[in-house]
Amino acid sequence: MEKTLILKNDIAEISRLAEFVENLGEEFMLTPDLVFNLNLVLEEAVSNVILYAYPKEEHEIITLSAKKDDNMLIFVLTDSGKEFDPTQIPDADVTLSAEEREIGGLGIFLIRQIMNTVEYQRIEGRNVLTLGKEL
Predict the structure, then answer these.
(1) What is the pTM of this model?
(2) How far apart are CA 4 and CA 64, in angstroms?
(3) Does residue 67 register a pLDDT over 90?
């Protein structure tokens, strides 16, 4: 069974994302800890698209689909914003203090730490980020 959420590239849409994740948690009988972590990951990924993929004046859509496949949850985030492959970003050096560390990259680091798979493709002018979490 696949569920889909269509969002506008507007930061106010994050509340709809949280509701979507909560509903998935109930439907798929996920633990509260897992729902919290998924919400964290998806909020990071979606907010990055909202804030950086489009010029501020452009109003576009972002699609998030979710499905449970045996013992795996699979999320596919799709947007038509500027090309960005988060799998090519090096991990943030979390051994450095906040003052020494470069700005950015912690969200992608967090996504990699929580999810089991993170894959990116550029298909027909669209960014397709696929995130997998083993149950």
Answers:
(1) 0.88
(2) 6
(3) yes
